[in-house]
Design goal:
By secondary structure, the chain is of the alpha+beta class. It has one domain. It is about 45% helix and about 20% strand. The chain contains five helices and three strands, in the order αβββαααα. The protein has a three-stranded antiparallel beta sheet. Helix 2 crosses helix 4. The longest helix has 18 residues. The mean pLDDT is about 90.
Length: about 130
């Protein structure tokens, strides 16, 4: 593992880059996303690229960073090991929990494609942020 223990510094060390631009909500956005500001994000790392929508609360005026995005992807990756029942038990059985579960699984796959090395994924998951 890297001697770096903070996620932003570790991502810099790895050469991870992201472009983050405000975006209109896509038609496919979940209903809950209406209450959040939408961004289109593209992340690159060692020739791998992932693009997706990212949401943040409208009251949060802080600029989104690459570390924010990667941290969120890592959390989805962590949660992707759950079955749907375990996911509902852990995060609540809301009406759209099956759709949210599928979205988490898709984000986890993006994370794996972006960071194919398991040790790198583990390092990111364990970083302080």
């Amino acid at each position: 593992m890297s001697a770096t223990t903070e996620l932003p510094a570790y991502l810099d060390e790895l050469g991870v880059k992201a472009t983050i631009k405000p975006a209109d909500h896509p038609k496919s956005a979940p209903e809950w996303a209406e209450n959040f500001a939408a961004f289109r994000v593209s992340v690159t790392y060692q020739g791998n690229r992932a693009s997706f929508f990212f949401y943040k609360g409208r009251g949060n005026s802080r600029e989104i960073t690459t570390a924010d995005v990667i941290h969120a992807l890592a959390r989805d990756y962590d949660a992707s090991c759950y079955t749907l029942k375990e996911f509902r038990d852990e995060f609540g059985g809301c009406v759209d929990s099956a759709a949210t579960y599928r979205a988490v699984k898709r984000q986890a796959e993006r994370f794996k494609r972006l960071f194919p090395d398991e040790q790198t994924r583990q390092n990111i998951a364990e970083m302080e942020y």
